[in-house]
Amino acid sequence: MSTVTMIYAGMFYIATLLLAVGLIYKIFDYSRTPAPLVIPTTPAPTTRTGVAYRMAKEVVVFESLFKSNKWIWVFGFLFHFGLLLVLARHLRYFTQPVWVWVDIVQPFGKYASIIMVLGLAGLWARRFLVDRVRYISTPSDHLMLLLLIAIGVSGMLMTFVSHTDIIALKEFVLGLMYLDVQPLPQDGILMVHLALVALLMVIFPVSKLLHAPGLFFSPTRNQVDNPREHRHVAAWAARLDQNN
Amino acid sequence: MAVADFEIPEIKSDIEVPKYRKGVMAHARTFPASKPIQENLGYPGELTEDWKERAIDKMGDLLGKYRSLKVFLDACVHCGACTDKCHYYLGTSDPKNMPVARQDLMRQVYRRYFTPAGKLFPKLVGAKDLTREVLDDWYSYYYQCSECRRCSVYCPYGIDTAEITMAGREILSHVGLGQKYSNEILGKVLKIGNNLGLPGSALEDTLEGLEEDIEADTGVAVKMPIDVKGAEVLLITPSADFFSEPHVESLIGYAKVFHAAGISWTMSTYASEAANFGLFDANYDVMRKAAMRIRDAALELGVKRIVVGECGHARRVAYSFWNTLTGIGYGGNDPFSIEMQKQLDPAYPQPQHICELTNDLIKSGKIKVDPSRNDDLVVTFHDSCNVARGSRMGTEAGGQFTIPRELIKSVVNNFHNMEDGTIGEATFCCGGGGGLLTDDLMEVRVKGALPRATALNNVVKEHQANFMAMICAICKAQFTKVLPKYGFDMSMVGGIHQLVSKAIKLD
User: Which of A29, A64, A72 sits opposite B80 (nearest CB)?
Assistant: First the structure.
């Protein structure tokens, strides 16, 4: 077993652990924090089903963003949709035999990487070209885009320019999953790609990438507009009622 | 007190997004509350020695109590979708009036003290120590937000800057830097029962005077009952309705509606205020104390229905929070709420909006109106921000937009909406909401009214509109003061029930 393989295996175990623990903690923390007042942005659905539909529109087609700004919507949607297909395509490294639907989307995932990187480039361009967005951008906002683009481009290089040994790669990945570490193909681009992905995994639960779980906990979007019919009281606030 | 001179923005043909100009509104600072005002609400009288620790502690406390704050501080990706949505940014071009930048004033501190990334790499993630300079920024810019929630409509994660502004103000109050305007008013409402500090006897005199005016005007003895036990309806209306123009015209309108429909009703000297300034810094205890006066009055008077007059933030608190805070509403199964519920008539929504009530009465033919009496008017409607984005009327989502318009159209013949993107859920705040309706913030108020003034100007040019109806006491006070600076006549401003008042047929 080479040192490089050991380092990469260790890196992915640690990254996965940090991602899982970090996200689970954050989700636990969001769910235990009370929402004492009914604050959906109205007009809001008056039923749970309606809320599920509202949330689905936010998650799938970014409804509010569409209302807000067509450029951000276009670039944001290209990036996220591209990413979804790319991630789906990557499932072929994790499944044996490969799931049928993964086989079907696999060729689309290949070209989705282009869409994804174009979307990211558009989002990054806005950070330079629109004065208001330039004003609010922090170094981490730029670096996050750089990181995602670097991951995308390094992946595309392996898909379109310099193929890596994906059979060996798959053995490495499956080996990680079944705690039977196999050698990592010694390919510079692949190693860069994987290191950046591990970095992204570590950053996820401590960065603005928390917008992904956060959306589901956003009271303005996930609450039902029924305060006249349903009494909504948080535990800490209910204690105040006892004093009357 | 002289207010610094400033330039009135020019109304263009469209609402334009300005290039940002750093710091141009940093000087706008609302007057701080004096020691007695602060201490009256249980806050320190002045900025404490240990303000920094207190502020961080309070922030931690609020993060544990409000999921909204925690999620909103984490979730923002700086996409920029909100940057051109705030009327204060559009009117002032100060970049700290962009919703995301206003949030970042708190987010930078949150990151520094509450997140690993901000503790380890502050510069990288834009985290900052809580310095006096940062605190001063909070004080300036959290009082240049009217908590109108327009940004929350457009945020892909529903981040509502109002929640962050409220938390910011609550922290400021807790370190001794409260706002004079809001905290003084809260002191009055908790002691006397209304924001103006009017004692019951003054209220009774005023109402008697109004009764005489109505009778002289119409020949009909319309009553303005107060503290009548056993009345069916308790009307809770902003205290501005008792004294201010054009507010009082709507109060006369409500009285005529109750009279014509034959509904017994009353107001209360003890709970003579619909507005709840506790919302503005979301101090739950203060907001609850103010709202509890209404519950207590309702129990004392034995009313079966509670109806709320034309008021914006009051409407949000009444509709969205009263059930939570005071048990006025349905669905509670604890002794506290059951006591209230068993007294209320389940045939009606509680609390009901006066527009819901009047619209139902007109539609069912229980009161008669003659819209031609308003034929001198071409009317448009300003959706008040907190009614639009923080409450509902009727049973369907969006009833807060359709019901007031239905009601207006039944009492006037000429009605035109302002352009899309400036009404409904996209409505622009009047510029004076959320605790900013004070002369020391006149520059913020005038500039913040620019988007609405622009939309109004267009409907005036296109349809010769000469009346802007609205259902909020703050909007009315703000527009009568601010629109003249843009060249509009203040008589253009008035409530929906001012129109109802003219059109209603009394017997």
Answer: A72
Q: How confident is the model at residue B51 (pLDDT cuts 50, 70, 90)?
A: very high
Give the A:B interface size as CB pairs under 8 Å.
233
For the cut 70, the answer to whether the pLDDT of residue B3 exceeds it is: no
B contact test, residue of A25, A68, A145, A233 with most B CBs within 10 A: A68
**Residues facing B179 on adjacent strands:** B32
Per the domain annotation, does B494 fall within a domain? yes
Q: In this structure, is residue B77 part of a structural domain?
A: yes
- Those of residues 111-130 in A touching chain B at CB distance below 8 A are 123, 126, 130
Nearest to A35 among B68, B400, B401 (CB): B68
Task: Say whether pLDDT at B1 is over 60.
Answer: no
Residue A239 lies in a domain: no
Contact A240 B288 (CB under 8 A): yes
What is the domain count for chain B? Answer: 3
Percent of chain A with pLDDT over 70: 99
What is the count of structural domains for chain A?
Answer: 1
Of A38, A221, A42, A34, residue with least CA distance to B320 = A38
Q: Does A134 touch chain B (CB under 8 A)?
A: no
Domain that holds residue A196: 3-30+46-224
Specify the pLDDT at position B194.
85
Q: Are the C-beta atoms of residues B96 and B457 closer than 8 Å to each other?
A: no
Does any domain span residue B445? yes
Query: Does residue B390 share a domain with residue B341?
Result: no
Name the minimum distance, in Å, from the CA of B161 to any CA of chain A.
11
Q: What is the CATH number of the domain that holds A71?
A: 1.20.950.20
CB of A163 within 8 Å of any CB in chain B?
no
**pLDDT given for residue A236 in this prediction:** 86
Rounded to two decimals, the ipTM of the complex is 0.96
Inter-chain residue contact B329 with A228, CB threshold 8 Å: yes
A111-126 pLDDT per residue, tens: 999 999 999 999 999 9
pLDDT at A238 over 90: no
| B264 pLDDT higher than 80 | yes
The C-alpha atoms of residue B222 and residue A171 are separated, in whole angstroms, by 88
The answer to whether A55 contacts chain B (CB < 8 Å) is no
Residues of A in contact with B160 (CB under 8 A): 39, 41, 220
Range of the domain at B174: 35-178
The shortest C-alpha distance from B148 to chain A (Å) reads 11
pLDDT at residue B438 is higher than 80 = yes
